[in-house]
Design a protein that fits this description.
Layout lengths: L12 E5 L4 H12 L4 E5 L6 H9 L6 E3 L5 E3 L3 H13 L1
Parallel strand pairs: 1-2
Antiparallel strand pairs: 1-3, 3-4
Length: 91
């Protein structure tokens, strides 16, 4: 079994973030409000998490949210994340 920090196509949504990040808290709250099943990788606790998030997005910005189809969004607005979630459900 592969872990969410090494699997480019996780079975469920994976969010890389940190508690100090306002955008991360906002995106996490949206996922929670919508009842989304997701894996949260806390970059303050998972040493290799930040490197993995940067490898996925090519940037150091967070949150990085990876979808089961391998696509990702980085630092999305609520509208962008909501649209991506709607798209993922429709697929």
């Amino acid at each position: 079994m592969t872990s969410p920090t090494t699997d480019p196509n996780p079975a469920r949504i994976t969010m890389y973030g940190a508690a100090w990040c306002g955008d991360c808290r906002r995106s996490k709250a949206l996922l929670d409000r919508r009842g989304v099943d997701y894996e949260y990788i806390d970059l303050e606790k998972v040493v290799e998490g930040a490197a993995r998030a940067q490898a996925i997005s090519g940037r150091t910005n967070i949150p990085v949210i990876v979808f089961p189809d391998g696509t990702h969004v980085t630092e999305p607005t609520d509208a962008e994340l909501g649209a991506k979630l709607d798209e993922a459900v429709a697929a």
